[in-house]
């Protein structure tokens, strides 16, 4: 069924960004909705379309659910092994998302009930699910791992939380009937699943999709009344800056979307994520707001929030319109105001608004405003000097290499380039980590089931070291971008995309004629980098084609005939076999 013009335009943009080659509009819309819903919980959840495919659980259209996603401590979990990494924090905040999407411009309550029943089957009666594909089984593995005693005991008092999203292209429906269905099934699931702390069923339509897409693209605008505002004198690199305060209700306009949900994406640059309701500082903030005797003192007791915006318009009488903004300090405060929103009208929130597009100033503000409380050093990694130099290195090499690439240290930094070139040419920190882990650590199997943030944490002493030759990060990223470029030109099929991390590992080995990886700071690595850069300036398609052929030959062996390809690719045993085969090829050359 055709979508309306606005949704169709959004879908076309989304397909371009993620290089989707799926012909069915219903499937494209499904991917878009999955992306939007999950991104509301984890703004940086999807590095590429491979991650999008990992949450899809309905291959034959019979399950009643399109996607299942697990968000733990604010991160999308791709495999059960991620859980043990998050468990080291001694706290697990778990959201389980079940998503069903329909392109019809109506809300079919029969399909809604089917979605709810499919969720119940997954949670309570897994044997009733007839389509047990690899993604469904992976989701079950994650679910079972979370509910093991040693992990479940670490769950916060308010989690695990279960969210069921039924999303259509409709704009209106029988609200009374739908509300009744949702509420009765929320109660039933909550009653039967004692270990699930809360159940939320939402039916969402066209307006939600359009609003959320604008939010994800950071195209939202809000109008606020900044009381007693002071305009600061001229500051180098800053167009305008204001200090003032907002009423709690005005502040809610900034942090909440049209459905009343928290806009988590606007805290993307606030490097310290929400620490939860049981955190002592957050308890104090909440207590101050909830207690009518201390509510009026909130403006005196709170350090306030810092908002960086790329557009601010004065509307007169202390009214301002903000667009493309981020809250870089104040995530804890914002979450507690949201948690106590029924009292928001009685509090005043101190606010600093900084209007600048200078990336260095933004990075400095992010660092400075988040140094007031303990923050893991890895949270600042992309803001450091090494990464600034990497960004410049990417730009310089792009002047001479066949494919231009741009390193986006901060979310949204290269939006204009995505429009002019292609989003796949914009390399994110997560994308670089995956490429590096595959090419130089030679662990493509790890990349398939591990969140890039966790790879970064586990290798924090071994990655992005100041003495590393920076070209290794450029080259790893270039090999990945080259693979995508070849796929766009039809030299790889859409099915070959699952092989991407292995292919780029193999290509490096074939190009340098060695499985061995020199010390990353050594002169030997410098020589290897020069060799690869020279080769990559020419026609290197044959290396990629040969890499695929090597992989396909291995995957076609009898021992893998009955196994799912994804399970094979993420196994350490297959990775070892691939490297053994590569060694044989190199020795026989």
Structure description:
This protein is of the alpha/beta class. The protein has helices at residues 5-18, 25-41, 49-54, 81-87, 109-124, 134-146, 149-152, 175-192, 206-216, 248-255, 280-290, 298-301, 331-339, 359-369, 385-398, 415-420, 429-439, 444-449, 452-458, 471-488, 500-512, 523-536, 541-555, 565-569, 572-587, and strands at residues 67-72, 75-76, 94-102, 161-168, 198-204, 221-225, 227-231, 240-247, 305-316, 319-329, 348-355, 406-408, 426-428. It has a 6-stranded mixed β-sheet with strand order 6-10-9-11-8-7. A 5-stranded mixed β-sheet has the order 2-1-3-4-5, sandwiched between helices. β4 (161-168), α8 and β5 (198-204) form a beta-alpha-beta unit. α2 crosses α9 and α20 packs across α21 (500-512). Residues 371-379 have low confidence and may be disordered.
Please describe the topology of this protein:
Blueprint: H1 5-18, H2 25-41, H3 49-54, E1 67-72, E2 75-76, H4 81-87, E3 94-102, H5 109-124, H6 134-146, H7 149-152, E4 161-168, H8 175-192, E5 198-204, H9 206-216, E6 221-225, E7 227-231, E8 240-247, H10 248-255, H11 280-290, H12 298-301, E9 305-316, E10 319-329, H13 331-339, E11 348-355, H14 359-369, H15 385-398, E12 406-408, H16 415-420, E13 426-428, H17 429-439, H18 444-449, H19 452-458, H20 471-488, H21 500-512, H22 523-536, H23 541-555, H24 565-569, H25 572-587
Parallel strand pairs: 3-4, 4-5, 9-11, 12-13
Antiparallel strand pairs: 1-2, 1-3, 6-10, 7-8, 8-11, 9-10
Helix pairs in contact: 2-9, 5-8, 11-13, 17-19, 17-20, 17-21, 20-21, 21-23, 21-25
């Amino acid at each position: 069924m055709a979508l309306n013009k606005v949704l169709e335009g959004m879908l076309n943009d989304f397909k371009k960004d993620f290089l989707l080659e799926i012909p069915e509009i219903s499937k494209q819309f499904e991917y878009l909705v999955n992306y939007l819903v999950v991104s509301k919980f984890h703004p940086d959840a999807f590095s590429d379309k491979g991650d999008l495919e990992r949450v899809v659980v309905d291959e034959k259209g019979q399950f009643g659910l399109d996607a299942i996603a697990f968000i733990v401590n604010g991160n999308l979990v791709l495999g059960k092994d991620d859980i043990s990494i998050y468990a080291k924090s001694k706290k697990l905040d778990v959201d389980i998302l079940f998503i069903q999407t329909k392109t019809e411009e109506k809300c079919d309550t029969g399909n809604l009930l089917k979605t709810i029943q499919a969720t119940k089957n997954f949670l309570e009666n897994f044997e009733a699910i007839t389509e047990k594909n690899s993604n469904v089984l992976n989701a079950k593995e994650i679910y079972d791992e979370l509910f093991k005693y040693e992990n479940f005991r670490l769950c916060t008092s308010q989690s695990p939380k279960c969210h069921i999203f039924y999303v259509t292209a409709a704009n209106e429906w029988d609200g009374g009937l739908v509300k009744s269905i949702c509420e009765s099934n929320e109660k039933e699931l909550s009653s039967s699943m004692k270990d699930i702390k809360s159940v939320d069923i939402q039916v969402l339509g066209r307006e939600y999709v359009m609003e959320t897409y604008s939010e994800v693209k950071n195209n939202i605008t809000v109008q606020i009344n900044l009381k007693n505002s002071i305009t600061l004198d001229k500051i180098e690199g800053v167009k305008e800056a204001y200090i003032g305060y907002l009423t709690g209700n005005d502040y809610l306009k900034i942090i909440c979307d049209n459905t009343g949900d928290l806009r988590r994406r606007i805290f993307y640059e606030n490097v310290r994520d929400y620490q939860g309701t049981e955190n002592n500082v957050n308890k104090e903030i909440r207590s101050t707001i909830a207690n009518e005797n201390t509510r009026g003192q909130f403006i005196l007791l709170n350090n306030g929030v810092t908002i960086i915006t790329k557009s601010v318009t004065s509307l007169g009488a202390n009214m301002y319109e903000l667009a493309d903004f981020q809250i870089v300090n104040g995530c804890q405060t914002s979450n507690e105001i949201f948690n106590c929103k029924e009292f928001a009208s009685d509090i005043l929130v101190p606010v600093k608004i900084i209007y600048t597009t200078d990336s260095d100033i933004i990075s400095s503000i992010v660092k400075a405003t988040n140094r007031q409380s303990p923050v893991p050093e890895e949270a600042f990694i992309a803001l450091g000097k090494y990464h600034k130099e990497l960004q410049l290195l990417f730009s310089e090499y792009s002047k001479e290499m066949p494919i231009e690439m741009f390193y986006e240290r901060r979310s949204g930094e290269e939006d204009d380039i995505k429009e002019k070139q292609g989003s796949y040419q914009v390399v994110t920190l997560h994308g670089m980590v995956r490429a590096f882990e595959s090419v130089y650590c030679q662990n493509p199997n790890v990349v398939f089931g591990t969140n890039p943030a966790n790879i970064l944490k586990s290798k924090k002493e071994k990655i992005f070291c100041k003495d590393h030759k920076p070209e290794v990060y450029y080259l790893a990223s270039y090999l990945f971008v080259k693979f995508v470029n070849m796929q766009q030109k039809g030299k790889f099929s859409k099915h070959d995309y699952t092989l991407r991390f292995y292919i780029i590992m193999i290509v490096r080995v074939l190009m340098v004629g060695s499985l061995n990886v020199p010390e990353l700071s050594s002169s030997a690595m410098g020589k290897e980098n020069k060799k690869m850069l020279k080769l990559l300036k020419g026609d290197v398609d044959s290396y990629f084609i040969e890499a695929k052929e090597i992989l396909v030959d291995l995957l076609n062996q009898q021992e893998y005939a009955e196994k799912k390809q994804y399970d094979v690719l993420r196994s350490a045993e297959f990775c070892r076999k691939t490297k053994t085969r590569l060694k044989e090829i190199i020795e026989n050359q």
